[in-house]
From TrEMBL:
This protein's GO CC annotations: cytoplasm; heterotrimeric G-protein complex
Annotated stretches, region: Disordered: 1-28
Statement: the UniProt record of this protein carries the keyword GTP-binding: yes
Protein name per Swiss-Prot or TrEMBL: G-alpha-domain-containing protein
Binding of GTP, residues: L304, K305, A306, R307, V308, N309, T310, N396, K397, L398, D399, A457
Gene3D superfamilies: GI Alpha 1, domain 2-like, P-loop containing nucleotide triphosphate hydrolases
Annotated positions binding Mg(2+): T310
Matching Pfam families: G-alpha
GTP-binding listed as a keyword: yes
Length: 485
């Protein structure tokens, strides 16, 4: 029945509507159809290309993990400098107040130390009476003069924090003042509410200062200018303070190595306090060496050395400006590494400083930094959610490790399992690398690749080579993904 009906249906000549179509009309219709198909195909092709582009432009996501001060944000800056140097250069200016604040904090730290040494009754002399504290003769007249002349830097420190955070004091997201752990041997870090937030604040201020029509802008930019002028005016005194023999002796006695600490700019006071100072990302400069009156070529990595500790996770998108991955988007997540920040972590890429073997954590002075780093690495390796993620391990701060060992610090005194081996950079770093690799092998839920590097993240040239290798790894992964689709 149905078949019969079908037969009869197919037998019906459906009106084509073209019955009266002339040859001309048919040609025109065919032409229109071809044109409509061409447009349709072109749109589809464009959509497909766009889809492919979006798919292709996503180079990958990277999460930087590691303990506080291990160099995560510095690695991020290296990625920015390597992948998008023009954008990074444009942003360099916003680091100037950070560098100034780093410098001012170092100076205030020294002044405080000198004052405390000068004011406190000598511990070793029970005859020194308690009671009103006076400046003792342990401060030389020259040092006393310098500490008085540099006193305005206390206010300048507060002022710079205010400019950077846009708020009168250091606060976290909930508006609560963060009490940084007091570390007597270390100049305090800069803690701002959120890394991206202060960047936004500074970018807006910079934009405003370019647009001189805005009255707020001129007020804000004049504040920045005032700070800079004050620093320029005090630059000779700052230099004199750092060169002062009793300051150097005082630091040595207290075993404080300021030049190894984050945000150290005291060796370049003249340059960074000059009126026209522009922070440089990885650039060679010829500097007059005041000690031996020679001109030294040094690589200036102001932006990489500027220190702000990260609070909370920050997402950064870097668009590659050239090369085989031009226009590709890299998403990098930078997180704070202190213990209180670690619960915000989710995914992976690790950074462990090798130089911390003789240091303790700021947030818990009972914990050795290297021990903390190894424990952290173990917990990340054994994390099941990360079982399928490829790891890149940066054993960072190779330069500090080297200078510590050269200065006579014995690695085996702190890592007792390191026996019968020389106290030199190569065997020590190789030993550490082996330990990290062993932990990875032992604790990973399943086999996976580990790319490990010994790094000095403030050496932009050497780090650029490593980033190129990481780019290759990422690109290979993308190719594999595309082939699988
Ligand atoms: N000498 C030296 N300094 C480094 C190296 N890597 C980083 N630094 C410095 O160490 C300081 C801390 O680096 P950051 O990148 O801010 O550390 P972080 O891991 O992001 O720290 P948090 O944000 O607190 O978790 C900065 O002043 C860097 O310039 C290195 O390889 N050698
Ligand atoms: Mg950081």
């Amino acid at each position: 029945m149905l078949v019969t009906k079908k037969k009869s249906l197919s037998a019906i000549a459906w009106p084509s509507g073209r019955g009266n179509e002339t040859d001309e009309e048919r040609k025109a219709r065919k032409l229109r159809q071809r044109e409509a198909k061409r447009v349709n195909d072109a749109i589809n092709k464009e959509l497909e290309a766009e889809r492919q582009k979006i798919h292709k432009n996503k180079a990958g996501k990277i999460l930087l993990l590691g303990q506080a001060e291990s160099g995560k944000s510095t690695v991020l800056k290296n990625f920015q400098l390597h992948l998008a140097p023009r954008a990074f250069e444009l942003e360099a200016d916003i680091w100037r107040p950070v560098i100034h604040l780093n410098l001012v904090r170092s100076v205030n730290f020294i002044v405080n130390l000198a004052m405390s040494r000068g004011q406190l009754p000598r511990q070793d002399n029970p005859k020194v009476p308690r009671g009103p504290r006076k400046l003792s003769s342990s401060l030389t007249p020259e040092l006393r003069k310098l500490t008085l002349r540099l006193a305005p830097l206390r206010q300048l420190e507060e002022h710079l924090i205010q400019i950077l955070s846009g708020r009168p004091q250091v606060v976290n997201d909930s508006g609560v003042t963060i009490a940084q752990p007091y570390v007597p041997t270390k100049a305090p870090d800069i803690t701002l509410s959120a890394g991206t937030q202060w960047r936004k604040t500074m970018t807006v201020q910079r934009q405003h200062s370019i647009d001189s029509m805005s009255s707020t802008a001129s007020r804000e930019s004049s504040e920045v200018v005032q700070c800079r002028r004050m620093l320029t005016a005090l630059s000779n005194d700052i230099e004199a303070l750092w060169a002062n023999r009793s300051v150097q002796e005082m630091l040595k006695t207290a075993e404080i190595t300021l030049h190894e600490q984050p945000g150290f700019f005291l060796d370049q006071v003249k340059r960074v306090t000059s009126e026209n100072f522009r922070p440089r990302p990885g650039e060679s400069l010829e500097l007059n060496n005041r000690v031996n009156s020679r001109f030294d070529i040094i690589t200036v990595d102001d932006v990489l050395k500027a220190r702000v500790n990260t609070l909370g996770p920050e997402e950064h998108t870097i668009v590659a400006e050239s090369g085989s991955d031009k226009a590709k988007h890299y998403t990098i997540y930078d997180v704070g590494g202190s213990r209180s920040q670690r619960n915000a972590w989710a995914q992976f890429f690790d950074d462990a400083p090798m130089s911390g073997f003789n240091q303790v954590l700021d947030e818990d002075t009972n914990v050795n930094r290297l021990t903390d780093s190894l424990r952290l690495w173990q917990s990340i390796c054994s994390n099941r959610i990360l079982a399928g993620v490829e790891f890149v391990l940066f054993l960072n701060k190779l330069d500090i490790l080297e200078s510590k060992l050269k200065s006579g610090v014995q690695f085996s005194e702190f890592v007792t399992s390191y026996t019968n081996k020389p106290n030199e950079t190569e065997p020590v770093s190789k030993y550490l690398l082996d330990v990290f690799i062993r932990i990875h092998k032992q604790y990973s839920p399943k086999r996976r690749k580990l790319h490990s590097y010994l790094t000095c993240a403030v050496d932009t040239k050497a780090t650029a080579d490593i980033i190129t290798k990481i780019q290759d790894v990422i690109l290979l992964k993308i190719l594999a993904r595309v082939n699988l689709v």
